[in-house]
Amino acid sequence: MKTTRQLYCQYLLSSQINYTCTNLAEHFENLDHNSIYRYLKTEKLSPRLLWEKVKDTIVYSPRGAIIFDDTVLDKSHSFAIEGVRRQYSGTEHAVIKGIGLVNCVYYNPDVDRFWVLDYRVFDPDRDGKTKLEDVSEMLDQLAFRAVEFCFVLMDSWYATTALMTRLVKEEKFSIARSRKIGWWMIRAAKNHTRQSKICRGQRKKSNAARPSRSKSLPPPRI
Q: Given CB 3.0 to 4.6 Å as the disulfide criterion, which of 23, 109, 118, 210 pairs with 104?
């Protein structure tokens, strides 16, 4: 039995704990774990393959949002896996050994559905790129693929001057989240740019303490 892309991807979707070659081989007759190892060593699963699978299933919305988020796949017990490095994990709230992954997700608020469009493996030792460069590269791909969206959601540390300037020029709403200050929104329009602070938990206290000179932007319903 030969290992194929469909076989391996279905295994990843169905297995919730064990993802090893030996575990997959145990579930199929005449499938040797060495065959799976050779497949993983020679096959290249690129982000482009993901886009080819999902592009015809996306339901676009004028209020659609692009979500950039990074995660760390815990590899604390690994000593030889390529791409594993020590980095901060928001899940563990500590620096751990793992593989960094930057995801690009499309969200349609009208039907309340998500589609993963793109991703990048954070491996600066291999490609020399930062997570911000990965996000910028994925934005280039979104423009090239003509993906329709209005909002960009991300953690606040992504909100650099260069990235925010780019989104303003492209006339997008960008919303950055910070645990300390809540939400920051930059609204980009043709002739003006407006920035507002949206602190859901602190807004009432702030308004009660002093009257606001201008109305703050309400959080978008997405």
A: 118
